[in-house]
């Protein structure tokens, strides 16, 4: 487990909170690839002010680009405040390539695993065995739902119907 300084932790929280406030219509490529560390998942859960979809991917995943593209298109078409976050499990040290990838540009925030992948996956969901794409639907209130592959359309639609601020 990493021991981060308090200012570093607050900076990560501020960056995450700032990403929550960014309108989904911006859809600009994330300029910064943030580190996904041991506490990042907990921070996602605690700081969610609006629903969030988190896609865990790898650079060699053949199904991930289509899942990211479809989720981004659905979110954009819904005009909702839902955030799309992509976490690239093997993206550390490949920041330039990640920024240039058109699929990752559709995310509101882009992260790369920073630390032991097995331990980070366990923090997200102890039942996750590393299959990608792995998608988490995080409502503002209620339990997070996990899917190996694209989430069922009705689950995503239910998340899209949750009004902001509830």
Verbal overview:
It is globular, with a radius of gyration of 15 Å. The chain starts with 5 loop residues before the first helix and ends in a 6-residue tail after the last helix. The protein has helices at residues 6-21, 40-47, 64-78, 95-100, 117-124, 153-160; strands at 33-36, 52-57, 83-88, 109-113, 134-138, 145-148. It has a single domain (6-21, 30-161), classed as Glutaredoxin (3-Layer(aba) Sandwich). Mean pLDDT is 84; it is low at 17-27. The protein is built from 6 helices and 6 strands. It has 166 residues and is of the alpha/beta class.
The CATH topology is what?
Glutaredoxin
Secondary structure class reads: alpha/beta
Rg over CA atoms: 15 Å
**CATH class wording:** Alpha Beta
Number of domains: 1
Mean pLDDT: 84
CATH homology superfamily name:
Glutaredoxin
